[in-house]
Specification:
The complex is a heterodimer. Chain A has no helices and nine strands. By secondary structure, chain A is mainly beta. Chain B is α/β, with parallel strands linked by helices. Among the domains of chain B are: about 1-135 and about 145-170, 3-Layer(aba) Sandwich (Rossmann fold), CATH 3.40.50; about 405-515, 2-Layer Sandwich (GMP Synthetase, Chain A, domain 3). The chains are: A mainly beta, B alpha/beta. Chains A and B meet through strand 2 and strand 7 of A and helix 1, helix 7, helix 8, strand 13 and strand 14 of B.
């Protein structure tokens, strides 16, 4: 998985879509609803189901960050699945005002 | 990310929200407000037209209007670069730039075609109304565009030699947006007034930030302080960006009309040196508004350092000179960027040391069309701006290094001397430049604009000697201007940049600038 900043990923088992804000320091597996996410626009598997262990849901406009790998995501479409890295759910990032100048 | 995705995501999330305020001009049938969904549909139609016409670039030689965001995103959807050009350029320079921008399709202001005589090879001209109504044959969904592709070409205001075009790729611009703007962060009534011209990087950044946050874009075709205040009041504008010369005039009009602009919350300024007295006046006159000073370059996809509303309040309220002084800084670098001050040999300097500002980060392009990238192998760009960082990491910008005065082997920063002169109560504006000198190689000259004499207290109108003494006491005697001229005003570009070359020519220090 090439989780480059700006790359967009979609859940295979719910409506969640994210964009990578900051990449991870080492290669990781990005998952949603218990299954690997795939690049937005690519075909998704039809035989997968939401894993009940990962149904916390994602919230649109919120940032999620993995303290381990440094991966940071912005949710651009909400869904039922929760975001995870290497099988571990990642937490909401503490909201901090961005330094906007516009 | 691609600019096209940026609009897709916003339109999906905020479809029914108004993206573009009703415009007072434009195509028949346009003029009404557009929601995010409608903006996206209009952009699709324009992209179909561009694809159908086989356009390789979308050039815009026009005033501000809804055609700017539609053109910017339309070009992105068609996977071609958007090239906004200053229509006020002299005919020869405009032609030279358009020849470099071709081939493609150009949206032009009515005065432009006659000025181009027989046109420009490879460039089809279209009026704004034609462009806004354009559509083309249906085409297959294009899929995710490549973030590596150029999104915008901006010709810099270089005055000599061949015009240079900064290349901003999709990944540069979207990196800036992702790192600085809260997606859907706007309240439904938030509105951003854009009065900076579309060929300025701030005009591009304003569109992207507004769409990503979910604001309503309000366009002022051409700046005048009166029109700006009218529009800001009528549209209950909450966010705006101005250059220093605009702010001074706006504050005057607000006083004349006793207008407060109660809806305004966020006013950013940048694009040139802002006199500290003007910032203080703005803080006093608009206490409900958060002031933001932004510093950036075209080549860095706009802002790289920000002095936020809290910084302003803290500085103005402080009795500690170092904190108070920060009102004259451009704030702290964005958290996703690295900024260093380096010496002539590129070695990093510590806090307090003066040198060149270097920057590194995902939004830094440093690339010009047809030239090698100015970014080093390890990702750093030398900005050619002089400056320094204080102990707390606040960045102070002293101006272009090309403007540094070399007097008898000593490097003098015009910005430092200007700042001291501006702190004199009788000085309203000043430019310090180097003039040829037989003894020292270069000597310091100052062109001073005094405040209206009616406003002066008993200290009265200063003469040359007292201004020299003012500088010598606060800096040192080598920095005191040998030559001082008094003027009614200084020459500025419409984007707020002091035109030092014009003054240099007038003082006989340089050949007259080419138009």
């Amino acid at each position: 998985m090439d989780l480059k900043p700006g790359s967009r990923w979609a859940s295979q088992v719910c409506a969640t879509e994210v964009v990578v804000v900051r990449s991870s320091t080492e290669p990781v597996s990005l998952e949603c609803g218990g299954h690997p996410m795939t690049p937005v626009g690519e075909d998704r598997a039809t035989d997968l189901a939401l894993d009940p262990a990962f149904t916390g849901g994602s919230l649109i406009g919120k940032r999620f960050a993995d303290p381990e790998s440094g991966l940071e995501l912005l949710v651009t479409k909400a869904g039922e699945g929760s975001l995870a890295v290497n099988g571990v759910t990642i937490p909401l990032k503490e909201a901090k005002p961005l330094p906007s100048s516009d | 990310m691609h600019l096209s995705s940026l609009l897709d995501i916003a339109a999906d999330a905020l479809g029914d929200r108004v993206a573009l305020a009703a415009c007072t001009h434009g195509a028949a049938g346009a003029g009404g407000a557009l929601t995010y969904k409608e903006l996206s549909e209009r952009v699709d139609a324009v992209a179909r037209h561009l694809a159908g016409a086989g356009a390789e670039r979308l050039v815009a030689v026009d005033v501000n209007s809804e055609a700017v965001p539609i053109g910017l995103f339309g070009a992105a959807r068609a996977n071609i670069a958007y090239v906004p050009v200053n229509y006020r350029l002299a005919d020869a320079q405009l032609r030279a730039i358009l020849e470099r921008a071709a081939p493609g399709l150009a949206v032009v202001e009515p005065s432009v075609p006659p000025r181009l005589g027989g046109g420009v090879p490879g460039l089809s001209l279209l009026s704004r109304d034609e462009f806004l109504a354009a559509d083309g044959p249906a085409r297959a969904a294009a899929g995710e565009g490549d973030p590596e592709d150029p999104a915008v070409l901006l010709f810099t205001s270089g005055t000599t030699g061949e015009p240079k075009a900064a290349v901003l790729r999709h990944r540069h611009l979207t990196s800036y947006v992702l790192e600085t703007v809260e997606f859907m962060g706007a309240d439904p009534e938030d509105a951003a007034l854009v009065s900076v011209p579309p060929y300025h990087i701030a005009g591009i950044a304003a569109v992207l930030s507004s769409v990503w946050s979910g604001r309503r874009l309000v366009y002022l075709p051409q700046f005048s302080a009166e029109a700006w205040v009218d529009l800001a009041a009528r549209e209950a504008v909450t966010h705006a960006m101005v250059v220093p010369t605009m702010l001074g005039r706006i504050l005057e009009v607000l006083v004349e009309r006793d207008e407060q602009l109660p809806a305004l919350r966020h006013l950013s300024y940048g694009g040139g040196r802002m006199p500290m007295a003007l910032v203080e006046r703005a803080l006093e006159q608009l206490p409900h508004v958060g002031l933001v000073n932004a510093y950036g370059l075209t080549e860095t996809s706009s802002t790289i350092a920000v002095l936020g509303p809290e910084d302003h309040r803290e500085a103005i309220g402080s009795t500690e000179p170092a904190v108070r002084h920060r009102l004259g800084s451009v704030g702290r670098p964005l958290p996703n960027l690295e900024v260093e001050i380096r010496d002539h040999d590129g070695a990093p300097l510590g806090a307090g040391a003066h040198g060149e500002i270097w920057v590194k980060g995902d939004q830094v392009s440093g690339e010009y069309l047809g030239r090698a990238s100015a970014v080093s192998a390890d990702g750093w760009l030398a900005t050619n701006d002089g400056g320094w960082l204080d102990e707390a990491g606040y960045l102070f910008v002293e101006g272009r290094l090309d403007d540094v005065i070399v007097r008898g082997g000593e490097n003098l920063s015009p910005g430092e001397i200007e700042e001291v002169l501006l702190s004199h109560p009788a000085v309203a504006d000043v430019a310090v430049i180097g003039v040829p000198d037989e003894e020292w190689g270069e000597a310091v000259a100052a062109v001073v604009v005094l405040v209206e004499s009616a406003d002066l207290d008993e200290a009265g109108v200063p003469d040359e000697d007292s201004l020299r003494a003012w500088v010598a006491e606060r800096l040192r005697s080598t920095r005191a201007p040998g030559r001082i001229e008094f003027r009614r005003e200084l020459p500025y570009s419409e984007t707020g940049k002091l035109l030092r070359r014009v003054l240099k020519a007038e003082l006989g220090a340089a050949p007259p600038p080419t138009p």
